[in-house]
């Protein structure tokens, strides 16, 4: 993903902070001159964060992306600054470096390693017991070598003070795109409070919190920086992030971790996947989904978009297909901060390939022969009212047919059911808006999100975001049925005609409704529709065995 350059400061080096800034600045300018159209990333941890900010402040016209882990700009508001005079007065024999300093700076795994080392246990064995990663262990030795000498430690503290003051006084000049990573168990610096402060001050800044990590974020094995960069959509090769050309598919490990994190949900819903072969035969599984794109999957949204998790997971595990889901802008940006879930809640979806719903993005993804997932009903279906389960709220006019035909994309209508087997909406938007306070809160929630389809008319325009009151049920099962692919290849000229395009659009919608009706009828004969019968089946068979369903 990157050409990597590393700034190494030897333990005995005493270069002042301002000279380090000039050193990095010279390197950045040379690289910018060599490749002026490529962004330059500055990744800085602690004092390195101050260094990156200082360089960005002095070079506002260079395209920089800052990734700052627990930046030390909060040094002046930390307890560490009080140590300087105290440590200066202590003799070397009383210097409390290993047990006292490292216990503050490390997260839980490293802290146990260092504590065991102080107690006389072999450091390597201790590291193996708690970290199990020799690379992390080797990195921790560098920290030890850097911190143990008293003179070096005092020099670092003094440099932290000057670096913090220098960077903090120049925040107003920073224009660079910035991502701040802050730890919840950083006992050296108030990193989470500092992250919030910087997010308010910097013009193009996002924040990600790691509540269980310590100060040395990059020495802790649980953190994967590549996944973070992809999940925040901060990876780009040009001036702006391109959701098509800058997308890097998740690694097998990344995808498996994401899918595993939703294993309980998939266990509860035990999704059944049905697809249709070219000859019209319905089969269990996803064999009817073409392996080559471009392919457009068009279907209905269940309540709160609960259908997305299972669909993306099954497509990947069964067919090794990364489906690029078109998503509402609220999963990427907000008009303002409020009570909606943080944008970081959707990072895993961005790693798996979701992108903001725009015609331009759809054009680019069809150009790259991707599998694209579209829910025309969008927010209106995901936040439906009582009694509206499985009712389609699609725009009156075709929004996707002609662009699909331009690239010869196969359109696969599908239906999904099962939300009413998890819970029932008992309090909806119509109930909540009768209460003035709640009506105001719903308006605030809706205004936080960037609005789509304003002025298109019809129910699909009503995109109020609200928390429905749901009465839980004994969990049932999710069902997905993918109809026969509709070919658009060779129909480009035909579908330029608005009437023909509208005719195909209505055909797709009718097919989605047919798939929904088929599933609602067939699930009645599924002996394993309830989680109780499924649990009994798994108890008498292998835990990973495939649970049967209705006869096709």
Automatic annotation (TrEMBL):
Residues 33-221 form the AB hydrolase-1 domain. Gene3D superfamilies: alpha/beta hydrolase. Pfam families: Abhydrolase_1 (PF00561), DAGAT (PF03982). It comes from the Eukaryota. One of its GO terms (molecular function) is diacylglycerol O-acyltransferase activity. Keywords: Acyltransferase, Transferase. GO terms for cellular component: membrane. InterPro entries: AB_hydrolase_1, AB_hydrolase_fold, DAGAT. GO terms for biological process: triglyceride biosynthetic process. Belongs to the diacylglycerol acyltransferase family. This is AB hydrolase-1 domain-containing protein. The lineage of its organism: Eukaryota, Viridiplantae, Streptophyta, Embryophyta, Tracheophyta.
């Amino acid at each position: 993903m990157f050409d990597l350059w590393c700034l190494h400061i030897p333990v005995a080096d005493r270069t002042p902070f301002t000279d380090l800034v000039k050193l990095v600045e010279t390197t950045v300018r040379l690289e910018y001159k060599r490749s002026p159209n490529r962004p330059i990333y500055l990744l800085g941890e602690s004092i390195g964060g101050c260094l990156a900010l200082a360089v960005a402040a002095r070079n506002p016209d260079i395209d920089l992306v800052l990734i700052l882990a627990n930046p030390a700009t909060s040094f002046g508001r930390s307890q560490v600054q009080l140590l300087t005079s105290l440590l200066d007065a202590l003799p070397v024999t009383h210097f409390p470096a290993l047990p006292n300093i490292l216990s503050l700076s490390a997260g839980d795994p490293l802290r146990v390693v260092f504590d065991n080392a102080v107690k006389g246990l072999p450091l390597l064995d201790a590291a193996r017991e708690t970290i199990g990663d020799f690379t992390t262990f080797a990195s921790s030795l560098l920290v030890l070598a850097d911190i143990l000498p008293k003179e070096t430690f005092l020099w670092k503290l003094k440099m932290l003070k000057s670096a913090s003051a220098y960077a903090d006084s120049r925040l107003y000049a920073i224009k660079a795109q910035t991502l701040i990573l802050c730890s919840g168990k950083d006992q050296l610096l108030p990193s989470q409070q500092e992250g919030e402060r910087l997010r308010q001050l910097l013009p193009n800044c996002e924040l990600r919190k790691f509540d269980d990590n310590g100060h040395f974020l990059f020495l802790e094995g649980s953190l994967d920086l590549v996944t973070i960069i992809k999940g925040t959509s901060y990876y780009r090769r040009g001036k702006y992030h391109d959701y098509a050309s800058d997308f890097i598919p998740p690694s097998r490990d990344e995808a498996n971790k994401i899918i595993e994190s939703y294993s309980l949900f998939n266990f509860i819903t035990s999704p059944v996947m049905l697809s249709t072969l070219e000859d019209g035969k319905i089969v269990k599984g996803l064999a009817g989904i073409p392996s080559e794109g471009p392919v457009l999957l068009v279907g209905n949204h269940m309540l709160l978009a609960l259908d997305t998790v299972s669909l993306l997971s099954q497509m990947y595990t069964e067919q090794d297909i990364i489906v690029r889901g078109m998503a509402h802008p609220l999963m990427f940006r907000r008009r303002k901060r409020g009570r909606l879930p943080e944008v970081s809640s959707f990072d895993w979806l961005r790693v798996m390939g979701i992108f903001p719903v725009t015609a331009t993005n759809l054009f680019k993804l069809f150009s790259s022969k991707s599998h694209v997932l579209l829910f025309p009903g969008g927010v209106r279906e995901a936040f439906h009212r009582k009694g509206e389960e499985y009712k389609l709220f699609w725009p009156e006019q075709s929004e996707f047919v002609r662009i699909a035909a331009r690239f010869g994309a196969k359109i696969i209508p599908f239906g999904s059911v099962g939300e009413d087997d998890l819970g029932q909406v008992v309090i909806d938007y119509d109930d909540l808006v009768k209460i003035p306070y709640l009506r105001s809160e719903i308006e605030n929630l809706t205004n936080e999100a960037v609005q789509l389809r304003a002025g298109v008319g019809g129910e699909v325009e009503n995109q109020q975001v609200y928390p429905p009151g749901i009465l839980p049920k004994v969990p049932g099962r999710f069902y997905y049925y993918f109809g026969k692919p509709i070919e658009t290849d060779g129909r480009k000229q035909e579908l330029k005609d608005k009437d023909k395009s509208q005719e195909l659009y209505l055909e797709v919608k009718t097919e989605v409704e047919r798939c929904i009706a088929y599933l609602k009828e067939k699930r009645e004969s599924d002996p394993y529709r309830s989680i109780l019968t499924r649990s009994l089946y798994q108890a008498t068979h292998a835990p990973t065995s495939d649970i049967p369903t209705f006869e096709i």
